[in-house]
């Protein structure tokens, strides 16, 4: 019996978690925000400095009441991180109108560490202007920039310098000018709740783009394979030569360009308004007929 008790005591006293490799502990800590991760490291002397070498610090969902306190906390954490460690991704959520110094600190840390993935979510009710330093990186491959406010966030007019970028998600953003010409490897582009500022026609110049969600008129993406338009207001829908697939979801038939969209092979149209019990107007029926005529070359066509 004593031997059994000794074995039980040995199992209980053995700290198996602390014996895990640093890479696995980092993975566990990354499931929490950076504040919880730092607090968790206090539980073990073996973990005390583990948070300083995390390759993917997560500043999302940090419960700090105001932006000023959050900025101080973030600066303290960034200063404490081991700058010799390769950082692969950074996630950031914050509330309020951040100043340029705050955003510059984010960009400086992320891009100086050759971060490959960056997600920035800003929750505020005011108008924002992001500084150019956030839109230039030689290493960034994935960028998610979301602005949740009553008005769109303004971005720089000059082209964004992301030569390695392959995936870009933008939400709540005001766009203008030729922004993507330096994103030579961009393949996936998603735009949500955004507007065009200062120009009537917005051109997307991204030669390797293959998956796109947008409302723009002119698209310069010769390798585009899929064009998805989801509940967006649009004056005229056009696509590059050779576009094979179109998916459209909205309340009315899409206004199509007569010159483009001749190469479509597969078309999926879902018109939400036509599930309404309201009596259909003759004008609506004519628009559907015009749409079908413009898409007559498609081999596979779905209309819902």
Any overview of this molecule?
Helix 5 (100-112) links the parallel strand 2 (89-95) and strand 3. This protein is 22% helix and 23% strand. It is built from six helices and 16 strands. The chain has two domains: 86-224; 226-304, no CATH class. By secondary structure, the chain is of the alpha/beta class. The chain is elongated, with a radius of gyration of 25 Å.
Total beta strands: 16
Number of helices in the DSSP assignment: 6
Report the sheet with the most strands, covering strand number, pairing sense and barrel closure: 11 strands, parallel
Low-confidence stretches: none
Q: Quick gist of this model?
A:
With 304 residues, this protein is of the alpha/beta class.
Spell out the blueprint of helices and strands:
Blueprint: H1 2-13, H2 22-29, H3 34-40, E1 58-59, H4 67-80, E2 89-95, H5 100-112, E3 117-123, E4 142-148, E5 153-154, E6 167-171, E7 173-175, E8 188-192, E9 195-196, E10 203-205, E11 211-213, E12 218-220, E13 226-230, E14 245-250, E15 266-271, H6 282-294, E16 300-303
Parallel strand pairs: 1-2, 2-3, 3-4, 4-6, 5-7, 6-8, 7-9, 8-11, 10-12, 11-13, 13-14, 14-15, 15-16
Defining key terms:
eleven-stranded parallel sheet, 6 helices, elongated, 304 residues
């Amino acid at each position: 019996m004593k031997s059994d008790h000794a074995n039980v005591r040995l199992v209980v006293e053995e700290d198996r978690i602390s014996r895990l490799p640093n890479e696995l502990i980092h993975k566990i800590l990354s499931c929490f925000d950076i504040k919880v991760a730092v607090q968790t490291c206090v539980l073990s002397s073996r973990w005390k400095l583990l948070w300083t070498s995390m390759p993917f610090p997560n500043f999302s969902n940090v419960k700090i009441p105001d932006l000023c306190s959050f900025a101080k906390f973030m600066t303290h954490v960034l200063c404490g991180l081991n700058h010799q460690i390769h950082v692969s991704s950074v996630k950031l959520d914050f509330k309020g109108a951040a100043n340029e110094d705050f955003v510059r600190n984010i960009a400086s840390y992320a891009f100086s560490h050759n971060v490959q993935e960056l997600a920035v979510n800003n929750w505020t009710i005011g108008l924002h202007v992001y500084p150019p330093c956030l839109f230039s990186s030689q290493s960034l491959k994935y960028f998610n920039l979301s602005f949740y406010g009553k008005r769109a966030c303004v971005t720089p007019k000059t082209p964004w310098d992301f030569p390695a970028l392959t995936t870009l998600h933008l939400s709540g953003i005001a766009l203008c000018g030729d922004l993507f010409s330096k994103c030579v490897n961009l393949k996936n582009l998603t735009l949500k709740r955004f507007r065009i500022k200062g120009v009537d026609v917005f051109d997307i110049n991204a030669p390797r783009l293959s998956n796109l969600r947008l409302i723009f008129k002119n698209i310069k993406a010769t390798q585009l394979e899929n064009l998805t338009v989801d509940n967006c207001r649009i004056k005229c829908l056009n696509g590059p030569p050779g576009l094979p697939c179109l998916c459209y979801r909205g309340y009315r038939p899409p206004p199509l360009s007569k010159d483009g969209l001749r190469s479509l092979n597969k078309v999926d149209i879902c018109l939400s308004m036509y599930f309404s019990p309201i009596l259909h107007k003759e004008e609506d029926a004519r628009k559907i007929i015009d749409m079908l005529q413009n898409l007559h070359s498609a081999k596979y066509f779905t209309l819902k």
